[in-house]
User: Fold this.
Amino acid sequence: MSEVSHSGLSQAQIAYFIEYGYVKLESAFGGDLARQGRDQLWRAMGLSPDAPETWKQPVFRLGFMTGKPFVQAANTPLLHSSYDALVGEGRWLKPNGLGTFPVRFPSPDDPGDAGWHVDVSFGTDNPDFMQWRVNVKSSGRALLMLFLFSDVGELDAPTRIRKGSHRAIAKQLLPYGEDGLTLGELAADGFASTADCEEVLATGQAGTVYLCHPFLVHSAQPHRGAMPRFMAQPPLLPKGEFDPSLPPSAVQIAIRRAIGMKV
Assistant:
C-alpha cells in the first residue's frame, strides 16, 4: 500500500489499522514502567495489592496521571513513530501523562459501565456526557489508545472491540457534517450497525498498547479473574483541525474509504 509509509509501523500494520480499526503493539513500553505506574495507582486509590479484602467495588476510576512513569510510557520511540505513522508527522500533541484509569477488580457485581460506545471528542464542557459529540472528521481526537499496565487475560476484564466497526460509524456520521452527533444520538439504536462485527479482546502483557481508530466501537466488561486490571484509555490529541492540503493520514484514509471517497 503506497498511501502511507513510515518506519514506525510496517505497511501490513498500517493496512490492518485502516481495515480493522486498531493495531496491537506488544512491549510498547517497559515492564518496569508498568510496575512503577501500578505502584502509583495503588497509592492514588489508597488500596494495597496485599489486602484483597479491601477491594470492595468492581471499578475504581482515577483521572489523568502525570507522574514520570506515565509520561515515559506514553512517549517511547516506538509509540512516537507509530503516532506519526497513523496520524501524520507533526499532527499530534505529545502526551503529558495518561488517563483515565478505570481500574477493574474481580467482582461478581455489574460494574455499571459495560455498554458499547465510541469515545466522543468535543462539546465536553456539557455536564451531561451523553451530549458530548463526535463528527466525521473526528474533531478533537486523533486516536483512542489502550495502555495495559498489568497483564490482561481473557478473564481480566479486557476491553471488548468490534473489529472494523469504525467503518460503520464513519458512514453514520457523514450526513451530519461538522456538528456530528451526540453520544446519545449515536447510541440510540445500541450501535446496531456494528452488531455483526467480529468481537476481539484487548488482552496482552503489561506494556502492550492498542492504538485504535477514534470511531472504533468498544465496551468494558466485568472482571472474572483474580488480580486487578490496570489500563489507561487516553486520547491522542490532534495538533489542529483537519487540513485538506496535507496528505491523508491512515486515520483519514480509513474514514474516506468507509464513506466512498477517493483516497
Q: What stands out?
A: The first strand starts at residue 22 and ends at 25. The mean pLDDT is 95.
